[in-house]
Amino acid sequence: QVLIYKLLKCLQGRYSMKVFYTHAGCTLVALNPFQSIPDLYSLDVMKEYHYARQPQEFKPHIFIVAEEAYRNVRGQLEPVNQSLVVSGESGAGKTWTSRCLMKYYATVASVSSVVKSQDTVERIERRVLDSNPVMEAFGNACTLRNNNSSRFGKYIQLQLDRCQLLVGATVQTYLLEKTRVACQPANERNFHIFYQASEQTYEQRKEWKMSHDQSFVWLPNSEKTIEEDCFHETVKAMVHLGINAERQGEIFRILAGILQLGNVSFSSSADESQPCHLDAKSKNFLQRAAELLCVPAEELQTCLRVRTLKAGKQSVLKPCSQADCSVRRDCLAKVIYAQLFEWLVTFINNSVCADKSTWCNFIGILDVYGFECFQTNNLEQLCINYANEKLQQHFVAHYLRAQQEEYVSEGLQWSFVKYQDNQSCLDLLEGSPISVFSLLNEESRLNRASDAKTFRVRLEKELCDNANISWDKFSKVPHFTVAHYAGKVGYQIEGMAEKNKDPVPPELISLLQKSNNQLLHQIFKDNETESQIKKGPGKTTVVSKFKNSLETLMKILHSTTPHYTRCIKPNPECKPLTFKKEEVIIQLEACGIVETIHISAAGFPISLSQITTSAVQYSCSIIAGALFIYFLFMFCKRNKPLEYVTRFKLPAAVRSWLVRNRVRRWNRAAGVIQRHKHLPETFCHFVHQMIFSFLFSPQGSIKLHCQRSPLLYADRQPDLKSDVTGFNEILLEKTLVLGLETSAFLRIHDQTTYELYMYLLG
């Protein structure tokens, strides 16, 4: 609790001084300022961090994480490929952080002495950056928690050639929230692109059959203006990506047709054998939608009101109920928008992706939806929170667990730091043979309508032994509650199985395949689209598809060197420079920041790779003896106190610098040994024991720890010019400051001796 209080006090103090980034072990904590800070991300700041000899000596910044990953690629440190994992809850600033990372790499990786290559890189750089506003326009929306909330997940691979120049990129997307097209939660908005298209000139609106006095059911809160409603920026980016004016016209006519569909309403017929009725206004909206989608109006009306049933080789037409008609209308809008979004992602990849022969490494940027908990949560929130559970488990396995297990495996004295392991929650959601997902898939594959109460009873029967799931027996609405790492969330069961089925009536697909809109026709003519409408147990459910894509993502993350950035939302109202302790502390405890600091403070700051441990120890003993004799020789020669006295403090969280000048130090050390090779070996051993008798531990003693670090952090130089300040000063007690305490001073005469001593520390 003391550490949590100090951490909170540290973050609050830095936030009030407009310092929004803080290092916490292997993690960068980023607090959302909720206001524009242009000087913090300028081109000069990028160059300052990129050209710095030791960027870690600068103020914490997202550019430090970016530069560290970039230098790992340049240094070909295994694993060479890097992944920047940006996590946090909705509204914490993940999208902005990912945007800054892409801009940084597009800047620092676009420098070339070859003019032709530079032009190519600049063209690719512009296309990579222009993919952001397009994907945000089609995939982001204004929610209660965030004006620019990502309603899909994406993993962007920035492709680098052998010279570490940016030559291309690819985008992988995960689970677009397509239900938002036809159903927007209260006080929230549809996707940005609909609002951008609705605020155009008279000529454009006339072409898209959108009169100025017309309102749209699927365009709620249109009077609210936000920064993201920038149509010209979206169109400009589309042009740079290669989407010409003709193709843009086809896209916006499709979007306008979707909005017209939302205004179509049905009324029940007195005769159940007859289709539902359409009033005059709805017929007009339906006619406009058909013209914009370039399909026959009569066929569109029939597909929405009449179901085609297969009876052997014969087809039977059955009128739909009023509710079924609305469902089919929503389904048509959702499938059109989802396929349009997939086409857009594919087009962007074809535009910016480089040939496999031209790139050899990549830096991945992961930006996924944050943890969500609303008054009503369904399948979308279950999948989103499941993805966050997987990412949290990756962090736990990579650092919290792996770092401590390595200490134990090497026989070091170590007391395990307790942390929240969410493996039991993952077992509940995806475990085998019985889990929430497996039971949901079984329910979805049954050839009948799902009953929420029956499914709840089965969940309770099969999963009653798991402590991460609970039920409110007095609730009138069937639901279940899952204890996630970030808190408990209740999920409504009603409609979950139907969403998991994601049924698309075949007659709707057949209608869209006949469209005279070339883009719409192209999207739905593919065999892959036809396979999505298959019925029976072979159909892939939403959960299965999302789980498989997430497993592929996790394999990529496990094969790369990860870098963690935890975005924190300082207040729920998104007010600038407002810090609410209760809001922040919940996020810090949930994402494992506190445990990270515990392990970093108690851990070993210096790590030597286990290449040839015995050889390193033998070399250290010889060099230590040479160093002592050199000290003694200079002291006797001058017969006066040495001129320079330096006291070193090594904070536990500071990573050793070992890689940069290792060969240079060896050369200098070899010269000293050659000049004093006549010294007896016992003398060298005595000095070795004297210098290395300190034991590094949280109590103030020092020990040189030879180990194989999973973090591969070997380019951090301890600050020798000042005492521990800032984050370490606040977090670490006086007894936790690691270094040579009280009377432990080293007297250094010249630069050569200093280099030798730094080698011994390395």
Automatic annotation (TrEMBL):
Region Actin-binding: list its residue ranges.
550-572
The record's listing under Pfam families reads: Myosin_head
Gene Ontology biological process terms, A to Z: actin filament organization
Q: Which UniProt keywords apply?
A: Actin-binding, ATP-binding, Membrane, Motor protein, Myosin, Nucleotide-binding, Transmembrane, Transmembrane helix
TM ranges: 615-633
Q: Which SMART domains match?
A: MYSc (SM00242)
User: Ranges for the Myosin motor domain?
Assistant: 1-609
In which family does this protein belong, per the annotation?
Belongs to the TRAFAC class myosin-kinesin ATPase superfamily. Myosin family.
Q: What is this protein called?
A: Myosin XIX
